[in-house]
Amino acid sequence: MVDDRRLVSVSAIVKRFGSNTALNDVSIDVARGEVHAIVGENGAGKSTLMNIINGALQPDEGTIAVDGKVLHFSGPSDALASGIAMVHQEPKLAAPLTVAENVYMGRLPRKAGGVVDAGALRRNTDQVLSDLGLPLKANDVVGQLPIAARQFVQFAKAVTLDARLIILDEPTASLTPVDTAQLFALMRRLKERGTAFIYISHHLDEIFEIADRVSVLKDGSLVTTLDVGETDKAELIRYMVGRDLAAHFPDHGERAAGEVALRAEGISGRGFRNVSLELRRGEIVGLAGLIGAGRTELARALCGAERITGGRLVRDGKPVKFGSASDGTAAGIAYLAEDRRDSVLRPLSVMHNITLAARNDLAHYGIMRSAKERAVAADYAQRLKVRATGIDQLAGQLSGGNQQKCVIARWLLRDSEVLIFDEPTRGIDIGTKREIYQLIHALAAEGRAILMISSELPEVLGMGDRILVMEGGRISGELSRAQATEPAIMELAVPQTKKERMHG
User: Fold this and answer.
1) Which of 323, 272, 41, 35 shows the shortest CA–CA distance to 167?
2) CATH annotation of 260-503
3) CA angle centred on 458, ends 420 and 387, rounded to 5°
4) For the chain, which terminal residue's Cβ has fewer other Cβ atoms within 10 angstroms, N or C?
């Protein structure tokens, strides 16, 4: 039961950036023990509003009240002192440090004389991780953890700060269904203690599973706030985008797979072993599996970014051996990383992000021809519908979906024939997702071979001509489009011990 007493209220918030009004008269409130979801397309104002609530930005107009008292936050530390913590979509952690050092950063237990009490730090952290049911260890190095695990580290940190309101920004973007279920179970336990959540997500199914109320933002304004039990997905989409989206995924039609563009024959490496697969021209192969199954490690090996210790790769019928990612690039294989920070150079312009991999081709005797570079970048930006003020805009200022389009344009400019997409729509709004789906389908229709890794089972089912499933570093099964269902995928993805617990 949601507590009627309001924990946090924001009233008539206005935020301007120059001549652009990012938020216009937005008011929402969050009750104790409530999950209040915020939805809207990229650019709707969600991140700006959250940054105001957690103190990272100050409003131009309007107020924030906690327990009925109007407060003024000069920074996130003020918000934390009032019990408001934020878990960011891109984990903001110190990669070289341990889980314990990140969870208790700035609050490390110390012995007499000021020396850090390493034993107490480890014990305290392991106790928190155990209480939360998180499969992590205090001494794990954060930089060696997958993105999903880093999200849980952020969550543990927020809990140890005694946060009364936790803002979750796309928390499941890198999580498998099993991880998501674990997160929701944790949220429900904390709700019973009175903890409130603001939950930002593009996954509308999650809203109906975990949220009590949902507010829709569009173009910086609050469209509506609804009880989740009194609405449905179709209505939310209409509020978000102003139209119905009858189908998220393009029609596969009668597209037939062509010749094998890339074949792996019993390859092994870090995180995977004895993997065999074929990627054919004109075909989209979905790759599913739980976090830690070896999907990303396999993808990186296919493009030369990870070392293959056994087996062999065959490209267009000829054995190849890659010593680096540049060798894979030269062979026409492109890898679009799960973490956009590994692909998008945020301080550089849209133009330079698009032309990055083809600068030698655009140069004349080693000198870059700026007019040609601008023309090529503008052409690809237009073809892929990159929404930007122009090709000179910094890539870091674009939405996640438009950053992804810049990376795709980069590899199309190199005429890559094998494209490996690792979580291509992570953190992207529902409208832009459809644009990415259409683009991937168009690339397959042109005869390119596509491998698409996704933790979203509806995405794998909607996009894949056939689906490979990994478990424990191996391919545990292959499903045709006709055979593929969510239960069939999960049966192949879940280790036997987990299956026994799930059915026991």
Assistant:
1) 35
2) 3.40.50.300
3) 60
4) C
The domain spans of the chain are 6-241, 260-503
Q: Which amino acid is at 357?
A: A
Question: CA nearest 283: which of 248, 249, 264, 255?
Answer: 255
Do 6-241 and 260-503 come out as alike in CATH topology? yes
Q: pLDDT tens per residue, the chain (504 residues)? A: 444 478 999 999 999 988 778 899 999 999 999 999 998 876 688 888 999 999 999 999 999 999 999 999 999 999 999 999 988 766 778 889 999 999 998 888 888 888 888 899 999 999 988 888 787 899 999 988 877 788 888 888 888 888 899 999 888 876 778 788 888 988 998 898 899 999 998 788 899 999 999 999 988 899 999 999 999 888 887 787 664 444 567 776 666 789 999 999 999 999 999 999 999 999 999 999 877 789 999 999 999 999 999 999 999 999 999 999 889 989 999 898 877 666 787 888 988 888 886 666 666 555 656 777 888 889 888 888 888 888 989 988 887 778 888 888 888 887 789 999 998 887 777 777 888 898 899 899 989 999 999 987 888 999 999 999 999 899 999 999 889 988 888 888 877 544 444 444
- CATH fold, domain 6-241, is Rossmann fold (3.40.50)
